[in-house]
Write a structure and sequence with these properties.
Elements: E1 14-17, H1 26-29, E2 34-38, E3 44-51, E4 55-63, E5 71-77, E6 83-86, E7 90-91, E8 98-108, E9 111-119, E10 125-130, E11 147-150, E12 172-174, E13 176-181
Antiparallel strand pairs: 1-13, 2-10, 3-9, 3-11, 4-8, 4-13, 5-6, 5-7, 5-9, 10-12
Length: 185
């Protein structure tokens, strides 16, 4: 698995609220290998994550794939699915590279959160991992692991409505998350 986020050292003792953070169940769930993959246009990919300590939100990051196009929106939501912060429509830039966008410093208390990412087209790609899309039905188990989607979600809405992925094409989980700093509260 690639390092994530690529620029963590630049924001101090940092980490990411991400489905790919250390200790996450997602690493064992996905086995399709890392690849540059498109997502469904205007569909948010959502992951429930847990923050065990007080932290400060510093920004958002995702890893672009081999083709960049259009705009991305990445955001963080509280346990009630209300938006805390998001990047807004941000041009996807830099192939096969992490892209980071700063956010207003916001204190986060320990607890459950949701991170979400959406793109406004089906051309831009993300470095993603996925289950075997030829295995019928494998994506239906994802909500049990805190993985969801939301249609018509670009730009990201103020409140999330969670749904199970409905097609194998939605079964990819891109490298994305909220950048946090646990040294400054």
């Amino acid at each position: 698995m690639p390092d994530f986020p690529a620029d963590a050292a630049s924001i101090g003792p940092a980490g990411a609220l991400s489905p790919w953070a250390e200790g996450s169940v997602y690493n064992g769930l996905y086995g399709g290998g890392w690849a540059s993959r498109t997502l469904v246009a205007n569909l948010a990919v959502i992951a429930e994550v847990f923050l065990p300590v007080i932290a400060t939100l510093r920004g958002f990051s995702w890893t672009n794939g081999s083709a960049v196009s259009g705009n991305v929106d990445c955001g963080l939501y509280d346990a009630h699915r209300n938006q805390i912060a998001h990047t807004g429509s941000t041009a996807q830039a830099g192939t096969n590279a992490s892209q980071a966008v700063g956010a207003t410093a916001t204190q986060l208390n320990p607890g459950n959160y949701y991170v979400a990412v959406a793109i406004d087209n089906a051309t831009g790609t993300f470095n993603s991992q996925g289950s075997n899309p030829n295995s019928a039905g494998t994506f239906y188990i994802y909500p049990a692991f805190g993985l969801f989607t939301m249609a018509s979600a670009f730009p990201l809405p103020s409140t999330l409505t969670l749904a199970a992925p409905s097609a194998a094409a939605q079964a990819y989980l891109p490298m994305f998350g909220a950048l946090i700093d646990t040294s400054v509260v």
